[in-house]
Amino acid sequence: NAGVTQTPKFQVLKTGQSMTLQCAQDMNHNSMYWYRQDPGMGLRLIYYSASEGTTDKGEVPNGYNVSRLNKREFSLRLESAAPSQTSVYFCASLRGLADTQYFGPGTRLTVL
Amino acid sequence: EDKVVQSPLSLVVHEGDTVTLNCSYEVTNFRSLLWYKQEKKAPTFLFMLTSSGIEKKSGRLSSILDKKELSSILNITATQTGDSAIYLCAVEASGGTYKYIFGTGTRLKVLA
Question: Which residues have a Cβ under 8 Å from the Cβ of A39 and sit 6 or more positions away?
């Protein structure tokens, strides 16, 4: 049982480049989330998908787009990376409101 | 605006000490508050507190929800170096949106 998986684990981009972070869960969870975590900070919600077919903005959505490809997969796209997007990105999934979120191992992204 | 505030931001103690971490929140239609422990990787779940479950305990860790004061505390007794981590508090945002708001976390360091 893999839980929540994220690829890649590490990535270095140049300013202006684009990339997609991939997230998949095998727990048949309905909701999925993308967070970023900067040094000394908690988790800030970028986008989330309460259920397959829906996506909503979180606290810091600017500069990002998401796709809920199917129930298992939720991707995060940076169209034109900026140094301010240097961060650790976590994906999470949730079965329902009476449950806890399960987190992936994170992607460390550096934008030069 | 929904808000979660944790205090202190950081804390250094010696093994054997007892610590109390605080989390206060402002959300309407409160449903749940969750505590997570984050070491070098992804957050791991500790406790979920709701209106029907305002006190939880696991070993040396315990947590209480005070709905009147809109806050929660996480207590760790007889601290060990393995307790060194960031402790995160999260609250489901208003309206049953499946959106979770995290505090900035408390960084705890336990010295041998």
Answer: none
Mean pLDDT of B103-111: 96
What would the pLDDT profile of A13-68 be if each residue is shown by its tens digit? Answer: 999 999 999 999 999 999 999 999 998 788 999 999 998 989 999 989 999 999 99
A103–B107: do the CB atoms touch at under 8 Å? no
Between positions 44 and 63 of A, the ones with CB within 8 A of B are 44-45, 48, 50, 56, 58-59
Residue B88 is predicted with a pLDDT of 96
Nearest residue of chain A to residue B47 (CA atoms): A100
Q: How far apart (Å, rounded) are the C-alpha atoms in residues B39 and A89? A: 15
Instruction: Read off the tokens for B77.
Output: 């007794």
Task: Write the CA distances from A76 to A7, A22, B11, B112, integer angstroms.
Answer: 11, 7, 34, 41
The 10 Å Cβ neighbour count of residue B7 is 14
Among the partner-chain residues B88, B98, B99, the one whose CB lies closest to the CB of A43 is B88
Nearest CA in chain B to A103: B42
How many other C-beta atoms can be found within 10 angstroms of the C-beta atom of residue A22? 16
Which amino acid belongs to residue A11?
Q
